[in-house]
Amino acid sequence: MDTSGSRPHGTDIAPHDSDSSFSPSGVGVIDKASLILDLLEAGPASLSQLVSATGISRPTVHRLASALAHHRLLGRDMQGRFVLGSRLVELASAAGEDRLIAAAAPILVQLRDATGESSQIFRRQGEWRVCVASSERPIGLRDTIPVGTQMSMKAGSAAQVLVAWEDHDRLLEGLHGARFTATMLAGVRRRGWAQSIGERESGIASVSAPVRGPGGRVIAAVSISGPIERLTRQPGRQHAETVVAAARQLTQAIRPVG
Question: Locate the IclR-ED domain: which residues (predicted)?
């Protein structure tokens, strides 16, 4: 039940100022949540400030803000005020996925040819990492990872890259049950690349590096993978420089023009 006070039904959402472009859709709960998000675009706000700015009752604002925080669409700052959440950054990054995939093909082919190993790009989707582009080694023993393959976030060099630059809470969450450690991830951040040897699958080694979005946040990992007998037990020594160069090319390719 909506405890929005004595306002007539359908009139409990109003633009927060006369210049607002907020336009209700008629789906009340979505409109109210959207209004809260719109208000926080200007910066942090306390519960009381949200109530005052929206004209929505305190219990309703509290319930909606708590639900949005549960889904990481909102967060809290050091003063306990509501702020826009990390999930919005992830969604904004995903909105640029077409640009990443469009740029990926020639760079992955170059990476495959330079290293002699299959190359891939992984993005995080919830609790999984998903291969969104790949270029397979044409002949011989290879690690085949088709586009669309879901893989664990708890093992492998791409998972290390996608976890290493997360905020503190998500990093701790990513380490729970993982085959890599906090010390290993500190090394990944320091070097700018990750390697794994039999971590995801026995006999397979890989090297990965971060692809960054326009804001500098890690949005994907570019990788090569193949049998340990070719990549050796120190695959980064052979291939890290080449993989990092490919990741930088992709980072540059998805930057907005102008």
Answer: 87-256
